Amino acid sequence: GAFVPGVRPGEQTARHIDGIVTRLTVAGAIYITLVCLLPEFLVAYLSVPFYFGGTSLLIVVVVIMDFITQVQTHLMSHQYDSLLKKSGKQGQSGALFR
User: Fold this and answer.
1) Is residue 90 within 8 Å of 84, Cβ to Cβ?
2) 66: which residues sit within 8 A by CB, 6+ positions away?
3) pLDDT tens profile 57-75
4) What angle separates helix 11-46 from helix 54-87, to the nearest 10 degrees?
5) Are residues 1 and 26 in the same domain?
6) What is the pTM of this model?
7) 3-state secondary structure labels for all residues of 20-49
8) What pLDDT does residue 98 have?
9) Domain extent at residue 79
10) Could you tell me if 24 and 65 lie in one domain?
11) 95 domain-assigned
12) Total domains, the chain
């Protein structure tokens, strides 16, 4: 079975997982609250001439996070390519498998 390293099985494991879930839930709630309230503050205090909704801000944040993930994946794949070239495991066309 599965276990959490450093935490005794049973009640302590349940409390440990409950604490992690609670912290993640609070962090997510704070994030969503900020995403909803930030556009309201921008419109009210900065007199932005257009409405900037929370949904559009959420979409922008998700797109930026996805872009960062794709860049990191691309950089990591280049590290693996150079490692494969050094080990001589790469095929003639540059592909690992034919």
Assistant:
1) yes
2) none
3) 778 889 999 999 999 999 8
4) 120
5) yes
6) 0.50
7) HHHHHHHHHHHHHHHHHHHHHHHHHHHCCC
8) 45
9) 53-89
10) no
11) no
12) 2
